[in-house]
Amino acid sequence: MYLYTGYWQIEVDAADREKIAFVTSEGLYEFKVMPFGLCNAPATFEGEAGLILNPKKCLFGAKEIKILGHFVSGEGIKPDPDKIKAVQDFPTPKDVESFLGLCSYYRRFIKDFCHRARPLQVLLKNNSKFMWTKLQEKAFGDLKSALISEPILSLFDETAPTELHTDASGYGIGAVLVQQQDGRERVIAYASRTLTKPETNYSTTEREYLAAVWAIMKFRPYLFGKSFTIIRDHHSLCWIANLKDPSVRLARWALRLQEYDITISYKSGKNIKMPIVFLEALLKTSRKIQQVRSSGNRRSFVQKKFRSFGLKRWLPVIPKHLRLDIVRHFHDAPTAGHLGFIKTYDRLRKRFYWPGLYRSVRNYVMHCKECQRRKPIPQKPPGHLMPMPAVEAPFHRVGVDLPGRFPKSLGGNKWIIVCTDYLTRYAITKSLPSADAPEILKFMVEEIILKHGAPRTIITDRGQVFQSKLIFEINRLCNVDHRMTSAYHPQTNGLTERFIKTLADMLSMYVDVEQRNWDQILPFVTFPYNAARQETTGLKPFYLLHGREAETTLDTIFPYSPDGATQDYLQRLLNQTKESRQLARLRTLEAQQKDRRIYDAKHRPVNYNSGDLVWIFMPVRKVGLSEKLLKKYFGSYQVVRKLSEVTYEIQDFDPLTKRRKIKDIVH
């Protein structure tokens, strides 16, 4: 019998309709009748009276009915003959998975289905080579014969004695649910499956026990709450429940079976009239590859058929297991040169063919680690410009750096330390005999803190001397925010780096041939830099810092006197100094915005999330090696967190061992 429109015969109360509303592109809609999917729908449907039947889909007094590809009668259940005919007429399959899917729909009718289908199932494994041998042909015919024989499964009788026959082998387990009906042994259902890779390592006893547990779970609707007998050909299962110290796996299975009323009976294999699987020893799939027959006639036939297509060149079709090796040879080998995927694909497509050749080459080249470590990405560089906020007063933010080691001067100095103020652009320089922490500390105290006050922020590179405990302590005592540039990104302290370049140009104009007098020239070339007008601010650093113009030797020869050193003049000079500093700040902001527009036009925005794997640009230089031949990118590294729009915290990450190492901050 078939009920007309099913659940839709039951109307939903108007007060409850909003609870089952659903969203569409046109808004919310509510069901007026009961839809499918509600948790209480089956109980409500069965409890209602006065349901309407669909006469077109009802049969009365029929001895046999067809439903869902099966015929159900008083004798039992059997497959639909039309479906069986489709299996019988099935040609030698090119798509094994499709054929097995058709047979699996009726696997409950086929005894030893797992065993019969085993030779075909091995062809579906990922790394398996497709070889259609006599073994596969026999399995193909065996499955068709098993269905054509029209097996009939009996209907389950709650009052009849029930037996569950189980068995296991090295690669599969199976079961048959049997009942004694009218003095005859009737099959209710067959079931079988292959073992997983870990399960194949179980001992014989564990596999036999697994077969019993799996079969009981499979037929739980029939067996739960009913007394039944398990028929086994493995004697150890009869006493396994009495083990004093069972393994964890056996103990866990034993607990799962305690809710069933089970009696285990042993019968030797030769006395079992209906063995389940009687699964044979593991099928040997490692047979030698059969000799390929001569393809001369086949090739002539194919060429004759396709001659009308205008094909001039025939290419070999490469099997799956050889494709990776061929792509690797045409990209990684010295004769390939690690070229791009277009050039690699062009070489391959003239020699070989397989479906998805272009995609295979592109994916391989894009994931080549050696190419990633050396070649730049053919697109705009990542990251937009993020200028630092302009400061309010002189020496609120300064940059400090050591511009490399110089030849030892006559005064015994080897290093130069520089400091630049980010508002006025004023520069301080000093020659040092060494670049150790005490010398750096002395410079910071005497030349910066005692003369201009403690800065709020100091920017340095990541040199070891700037990370020493001595520098850390002086910054802590003076409440200085010490910020270091990210690795391999000196642009963070760009003002100081630009001054160092200008300073080197000025020193080179006056240094002697042996470069031994640079420390004597250093203060002289620093003065004109501070007294010259800066392009960004349009003002002189000396004037912005001191509020007056710097006087030179010419000024002493031709003295310049203002209108008078009156109180009004001094006040006006003070006001001009404040206005000049404010003007310098505004011009700095304008220059930053201009630089940002130019920079961003040539770069692209990027965003990395926590957990992403990235490569890091590290132009490492090594003595004796050519910089042009060194790798530029290193990794892989994992993003830990995002610190700003262009700054990230990363950690070394090995995708094979999942091992995380030292953290670092990069631009």
TrEMBL record:
<dbReference type="InterPro" id="IPR012337">
    <property type="entry name" value="RNaseH-like_sf"/>
</dbReference>
<dbReference type="InterPro" id="IPR054465">
    <property type="entry name" value="Integrase_p58-like_C"/>
</dbReference>
<feature type="domain" description="Integrase catalytic">
    <location>
        <begin position="390"/>
        <end position="549"/>
    </location>
</feature>
<keyword id="KW-0808">Transferase</keyword>
<keyword id="KW-0378">Hydrolase</keyword>
<dbReference type="InterPro" id="IPR036397">
    <property type="entry name" value="RNaseH_sf"/>
</dbReference>
<dbReference type="InterPro" id="IPR050951">
    <property type="entry name" value="Retrovirus_Pol_polyprotein"/>
</dbReference>
<keyword id="KW-0548">Nucleotidyltransferase</keyword>
<dbReference type="GO" id="GO:0003676">
    <property type="term" value="F:nucleic acid binding"/>
</dbReference>
<dbReference type="GO" id="GO:0042575">
    <property type="term" value="C:DNA polymerase complex"/>
</dbReference>
<dbReference type="InterPro" id="IPR041373">
    <property type="entry name" value="RT_RNaseH"/>
</dbReference>
<dbReference type="GO" id="GO:0015074">
    <property type="term" value="P:DNA integration"/>
</dbReference>
<dbReference type="InterPro" id="IPR001584">
    <property type="entry name" value="Integrase_cat-core"/>
</dbReference>
<keyword id="KW-0540">Nuclease</keyword>
<dbReference type="GO" id="GO:0004519">
    <property type="term" value="F:endonuclease activity"/>
</dbReference>
<dbReference type="InterPro" id="IPR041588">
    <property type="entry name" value="Integrase_H2C2"/>
</dbReference>
<dbReference type="GO" id="GO:0008233">
    <property type="term" value="F:peptidase activity"/>
</dbReference>
<keyword id="KW-0645">Protease</keyword>
<dbReference type="Pfam" id="PF17917">
    <property type="entry name" value="RT_RNaseH"/>
</dbReference>
<keyword id="KW-0695">RNA-directed DNA polymerase</keyword>
<dbReference type="GO" id="GO:0003964">
    <property type="term" value="F:RNA-directed DNA polymerase activity"/>
</dbReference>
<dbReference type="InterPro" id="IPR043502">
    <property type="entry name" value="DNA/RNA_pol_sf"/>
</dbReference>
<dbReference type="GO" id="GO:0006508">
    <property type="term" value="P:proteolysis"/>
</dbReference>
<dbReference type="Pfam" id="PF17921">
    <property type="entry name" value="Integrase_H2C2"/>
</dbReference>
<protein>
    <recommendedName>
        <fullName>RNA-directed DNA polymerase</fullName>
        <ecNumber>2.7.7.49</ecNumber>
    </recommendedName>
</protein>
<keyword id="KW-0255">Endonuclease</keyword>
<dbReference type="Pfam" id="PF22938">
    <property type="entry name" value="Integrase_p58_C"/>
</dbReference>
<dbReference type="InterPro" id="IPR043128">
    <property type="entry name" value="Rev_trsase/Diguanyl_cyclase"/>
</dbReference>
